[in-house]
Amino acid sequence: MKKKIKALSFTPKYDELEDRIRISINYDDFNNRVDLMMSRSFMLKLFPIVDDYMLKFYNSELGVDDSIKDNPKEKMKQDSATSITDGSNLELFKQEDELLIEVKFSFIKETQMSIVVFETKNTQAVSTLDARSMKQIFSIIKSTTPFFSWGISHNL
């Protein structure tokens, strides 16, 4: 049976040694933390799906089609919903890495919210997000991508 957690915070970081993107969910909560590893091939499949989903359900609300031009690192400095990661907690509570194998999206029409489920072999991390939060999380994850060394465009 898979462990199911509520995903409240997302902390992405590129791991040079593994050559993968690490996403620590709930990084400062030892009992509800999961450290996901996202491969290059998974990322190349995921982000076009995320963009299509955002365009389908949130385009009019956010002007998502301009997201390619956004600089998430600069916006993060100005956004009150984001905070700087405590590096000591990030390493102190580190869990065994789990390979991200699936991300599922469900749109709730009545509330205009999305349920996003990050799945590994052993864990389901579930988050309910509004348009702004969803765009922010995936933009910040995308910003950790080593575009040049992975041989992909910044416009992914």
Please, could you describe this protein's structure?
- This protein has a domain at 10-100 and 132-148.
- Mean pLDDT is 84; it is low at 64-69.
- The longest helix is centred in the N-terminal third of the chain and has 23 residues, at 40-62.
- The protein is built from five helices and eight strands.
- Helices cover 34% and strands 29% of the residues.
- It starts with a strand and ends in a 6-residue tail after the last helix.
- It has a four-stranded mixed β-sheet with strand order 1-8-7-6.
- The radius of gyration is 15 Å and the shape is globular.
- It is of the alpha/beta class and 156 residues long.
- Helix 1 (40-62) packs antiparallel against helix 4.
- The chain has helices spanning 40-62, 72-78, 87-92, 131-143, 147-150; strands spanning 3-6, 10-15, 20-25, 34-38, 97-99, 102-108, 113-119, 123-129.
- A hairpin with a 4-residue loop joins strand 2 and strand 3 (20-25).
Euclidean distance between termini CA atoms: 35 Å
> What multimeric state do the chains show?
single chain
Helix content: 25-40%
Low-confidence stretches: 64-69
Q: Strand order across the biggest sheet?
A: 1-8-7-6
Helical run tally: 5
Coarse morphology: globular
What is the element string, with H for helices and E for strands? EEEEHHHEEEEHH
Query: Averaging pLDDT over every residue, what do you get?
Result: 84
